[in-house]
Amino acid sequence: xxxxxxxxxxxKRVVLFTMVSFITVIIMQSFKTETSLKNDDTxxxxxxxxxxxxxxSVYKVLMxxxxxxxxxxxxxxxxxxxxxxxxxxxxRGTDGKGMYAARCSNCHQNENTAGLHMPPGNPKxxxxxxxxxxxxxxxxxxQLALQILxxxxxxxxxxxxxxDHMANDELVGWGWHPGDGRTLPPMSRSAFVAQxxxxxxxxxxxxxxx
Amino acid sequence: MxxxxxxxxxxxxxxxxxxxxxxxxxxILGLTGTKYGCGAAQCGACTVHMNGxxxxxxxxxxxxxxxxxxxxxxxxxxxxxxxxxxxxxELNVPQCGYxxxxxxxxxxxxxxxxxxxxxxDIDDAMSGNICRxxxxxxxxxxxxxxxxxxxxxxxx
Lengths: 210, 156
Ligand code: FES
Ligand code: FES
Prior knowledge:
The complex is a heterodimer of chains A (210) and B (156). Chain A is mainly α.
């Protein structure tokens, strides 16, 4: 009798030990998962305050005449540091490159024409097309942030493509090489791109509506 | 040497690639129908066609025009019989005439792309061509007339 009894006791101990170990491992695992999530620095830390702050810098650049003049609320581009409506009744047209005898590249060359009040230029000179106007003029920070993030309004761009557009597009880059007599945006292009990246990395939050 | 095709003729020009096309057209090729008004893309007097678009030759450099199809007022039609030229004649559009070759070259692009332009279309196409004599109302009437001539000709 004693042998079977002791064998049962041993079995019980083994089962108990196994269960305790199993539960311990599960608990440890769960902690471990938590910890590795927190320490994984490839995952961005969301920070709505930092994100909004970065966007406000981005917004200042986008609303500067060098950017906003070709993102008007109407059909005509704007001109100059006072963003007056383009003389000569110039209009966007369907492709954003003007209409009939008033196509952008009829006056705007591949490069800035030298001299004060001469046409600035770039191979891609033009406005956003009629079907995707990407208006900056008159937009609040809240509205502009949401608009920029919306692929239906931003030319179908993902966040990575947005960063690439701001960092590498040559017409965007013209803003920092505007030719004679035109003021620059309020920060360098690299500083601007850093703020765009920060805005998105911290969660791409839009400033509040009010 | 820069190779220029103007009114269907090939020319080899010995000039600075930064020279404005207008200079080459007038001073080197001797085609003086195209005028110099402002030199700053502000008036339209220097308008010529480059690959069918109404470019301003005062700000278009030779290195952009090289190898492209350039048409000046002298090449708009074989016998001065473009519908616009017929209408211009009929309505006596020009006053001093200085702006008129530019006006015609701009209007030709409008009429090619829009067979029956409205007043609004004319405004959209032509507002960048300045006329110091103020012949705007006659230009408008003549473009309507030319559209009519063009439509009638298409019926025959
Ligand atoms: S001379 Fe070229 S636009 Fe005035
Ligand atoms: S007819 Fe004189 S400038 Fe137009």
